[in-house]
Structure formats: structure tokens, C-alpha cells
Amino acid sequence: MNLLSVVIPAYNEEKNLIVAAQRLSDVLTAAGIPYELIFVDDGSRDATYTLIREESGRNPAVRGVSFSRNFGKEAAIFAGLKEAKGDACVVTDCDMQFPAEVIVEMWKLWEQGYQVVEGKKSSRGKERAAHGFFARTFYKFISKAVGMDMQSSSDFKLLDRQVVDVLNNLRERDTFFRALSFWAGFKTATVEFEVAPRVGGASKWSFTKLTRYAISNITSFTTAPLRVVTLLGTVLLICSAVLGVQTLVHFFMGEAVEGFTTVILLLLVIGGAIMVSLGIIGHYVGRIYDEVKSRPRYIIAHRTEEEKTHAVDA
Ligand code: UDP
Ligand code: MG
To answer: Domain residue spans in the chain?
Structure first.
């Protein structure tokens, strides 16, 4: 009998956890799908992990791990995929913004032989205008980098065991899960779903967090910004050739004292361009540094299974 693992990253989700576990197990039981729910507590500061432990006591299909601190959703997803034992894995959110019924649809597609089932947002839900604009620009970049249209993609997807193993064996630490399933390829299907409003609590994404996420994801998939540096240099070189000729002409005609404004402007433009370019290069160097250190991506502090065996020992 095939097993479905549902991976659920949870960060300060005490308001949603029980509801999510109940809803998922109800839907999957009703559909007759053998399942396990794997909650990954991403270093929550509220009662999230206590609730995971309680839920795993009630329902043997539920287990979970808890990080020593907040490592971010990406780390939580990958920790969940490592823990998962299923023949297929679904990643979903704890706030139930991704409808549980869609998982059943995904499972059916998987049974038909699709190895990746992408959840596609039919609308982007409610968001601020500025947020929407940045999100669209970001997805335009990343779609180009991955070579696929990622405009309405989400972290909600089903992956076959073979794909999960590919992702588990990636050595890079700074990952972008949403794009990696596209990158991996395999036989892919798409299901559309309507993004529901959050059940409880607030979204954990601040504007700064989103910007950092966007930059990190773009640079993790493309070196295009480095090519922009080269392009900038070329443009400046062409300009300097034109200006150079003009300066020499002036010099030989004996009228070389003027043009101080030009000097100041050139200094500013070139100085700025050099610093921005160094910043871009520096960013990639920083990424290399982070990858080379190869620290673990997350630290697991607790596991519900271990605590159960301890309880038996005692
Ligand atoms: N999440 C996480 N670590 C974080 C931030 C979020 O594990 O640092 C989880 C969160 O608990 C939820 C999912 O990622 O299950 C999506 O988070 P959220 O709803 O805040 O994001 P949004 O839906 O607004 O994109
Ligand atoms: Mg959400």
C-alpha cells in the first residue's frame, strides 16, 4: 500500500495547528489515502511544538520535529522531506491557505503516473498593490532564470519519492523549493486552487524579509546580475571612447581648462557603477562563502518519536 507523507512547516502556528492536523487527517481518511503528517516546528516561540506532541499522542499518523531556532520555511520544508517515508510527499502550509481537498486531487494524478504535481494559484489572493508589483517583477526574473512560467506557482506541491530523493541529495544549502521542482523536471501535472484566507494568526512575511528572499532566490538560480556588471562596463567603455576623443580634440586646440563639470559627473557615475558592481560580485562571493562553510541548514532539537520512547522507558 502506498503511503502519502504530508510535510507541514509551522512557525508560531498554535492557532492553526490542531485545526490543520484535524482537517488534513479527516480529508485523507475520507479519501482512503494512507498518510502520515510531518510537522516541522521552525523554532516557534509559542506552544506549536507542545501541540504537535499532543497531536502525535492522539493520532499515530502524526509526528514532528522541532528546530533549535527559526531557520526559515525553506529549511523546514527540506527537513520535512528528509523525515518523510512516503512514496509521495505533499508540502502544504499550516495556515490552511492551501485547500486540503486539492491534496486528494494531487494524489490521484500521482497514481496516474505524474511525478510532480504543481499547485497553481488561480488568483494571488488579497495583497497590497506594492507587494503585488514586486511579486510580479520577482517572478518575471525567476521565470526567466528557470526557463518556466512561475507566475502563479506556490510551495504547495506533490513530489514522487524519486524527486524527493533528488532534492534530498542536493548539496546546496541556499535553496528555493518552489523553483527546484521545476528545475528537477520529471513528468509534471498542474492543479489549480483558490488561495484561502489564513485561518488564524498573521503572515510571517515582512517587506524586508520578502526582499531578502527575492534577492537570495534570484541569485541562487541565475548569474545574470554578474552579466549586467559586464554590460555596464561595456557601456561605460563606449562612452569613455567618445568623451576621450572629445577631450583630446579640446586639448590639441588649446582649450582644455574647461569641462570641470564633466570630470565631476564622470567621477560620480563611474564611482557609483564600480560600487554597485562590487556589491553584486560581493553578494555572489558571500554566497560562495556560505556554501563553502557547509554548516547544517537546520538543527533538530526535539522529535516526537524520541519523546515517545523516552516516555516508555520511564
Ligand atoms: N513558516 C515557517 N518558517 C518561517 C515562516 C513561515 O515555517 O520562518 C511557515 C508558516 O508556519 C506557514 C508557512 O510557512 O505554515 C507559510 O507562512 P505564511 O502563512 O506566514 O506565509 P504566506 O502564506 O503569507 O506566504
Ligand atoms: Mg500563509
So the answer is: 4-206+296-313, 224-293
Burial level of 276, CB count in 10 A (0-12/13-18/19+)?
middle
From residue 149, alpha-carbon distances to 6, 66, 185, 211 in Å are 25, 34, 13, 20
Question: What amino acid occupies position 263?
Answer: V
206 touches ligand 1 (CB under 6 Å): no
Instruction: Residues 4-206+296-313: name the CATH superfamily.
Output: Spore Coat Polysaccharide Biosynthesis Protein SpsA; Chain A (3.90.550.10)
**Sheet strands (E) in the chain:** 4-10, 35-41, 62-67, 88-91, 116-121, 153-160, 188-193, 300-303
Q: What is the pTM of this model?
A: 0.75
Q: Give the three cell numbers for residue 107.
A: 494524489
CA-closest residue to ligand 1 atom 18: 203
30 or 250: which leads in pLDDT: 30
Report the SS3 class of residue 158: strand
Counting ligand 1 atoms within 8 A of each CB, the residue from 11, 66, 92 with the most, and so the one to mutate, is 11
Category of 12 on φ-ψ map: left (φ > 0), alpha (ψ -120 to 50) or beta: left
pLDDT tens digits for range 282-313: 888 988 888 888 888 899 988 887 776 565 55
Per-chain residues with Cβ under 5 A from ion ligand 2:
95, 97
Atom 3 (ligand 1) nearest CA? 73
CA-40 nearest atom, ligand 1: 7
CA atoms within 13 A on the CB side of 195: 16
| Greatest mean pLDDT range, 60-64, 261-265, 309-313 | 60-64
> Atom 24 (ligand 1): residue with closest C-alpha?
203
146 near 224, Cβ under 8 Å? no
H-helix or E-strand spanning residue 229: helix 224-252
